[in-house]
Write a structure and sequence with these properties.
With 152 residues, the chain is of the alpha+beta class. It folds into two domains: 50 residues, 2,3-Dihydroxybiphenyl 1,2-Dioxygenase, domain 1 (Roll), CATH 3.10.180.10; 74 residues, 2,3-Dihydroxybiphenyl 1,2-Dioxygenase, domain 1 (Roll), CATH 3.10.180. 20% of the residues lie in helices and 30% in strands. InterPro entries: Glyas_Bleomycin-R_OHBP_Dase, Glyas_Fos-R_dOase_dom, VOC_core.
């Protein structure tokens, strides 16, 4: 067996409409419209790369929150948002305009990244690649380079 790519991500959310607005209106993801044949409210999103990359399933307001600190489970997921630091600076402006707090910013050598949280606390890395593919392919260990503060 060989994994070809990460296909999609499914997140449980408390309030589907609130999360739908965040992923569609703030992050700019295209929502896939149509009747959802699931037994619970759900919404799907795609960048156009595949049929859907994100599925949100509503679990309601009584759902337990994610526990803080170190825990087993999803830490964060990454979304490529451009090709250079100018694109990332535009993302900062856009997030600020929408009242989204940036929780962190890191220079990972191969990427420059911002960290935010969705309305339910799922951490999201918004990044641009800053190292040429042939460079990190020649030395894949660069993915473990020390993390430095990002200076945009």
């Amino acid at each position: 067996m060989r994994i070809h790519e990460l296909g999609h991500l499914v997140l449980y959310v408390r309030d589907l409409e609130r999360s739908r607005r965040f992923y569609r209106d703030v992050l700019g993801w295209n929502e896939i419209r149509g009747e959802v044949p699931l037994p619970v409210p759900a919404a799907a999103f795609s960048s156009g790369r595949t049929h859907h990359e994100l599925l949100l399933i509503e679990v309601g307001p009584a759902a337990a929150p994610m526990p803080p600190g170190h825990r087993v489970g999803l830490y964060h997921f990454g979304l490529k948002v451009g090709d250079n630091d100018d694109d990332l600076r535009e993302v900062v402006r856009h997030l600020t305009e929408h009242g989204v707090q940036i929780q962190g910013a890191s220079d990972h050598t191969i990427t420059h990244s911002l960290y935010i949280a969705d309305p339910d606390g799922h951490e999201i890395e918004l990044y641009v690649d800053v190292m040429a593919t042939e460079e990190w392919l020649a030395d894949p260990s660069v993915v473990f380079a020390p993390i430095r503060p990002l200076r945009l």
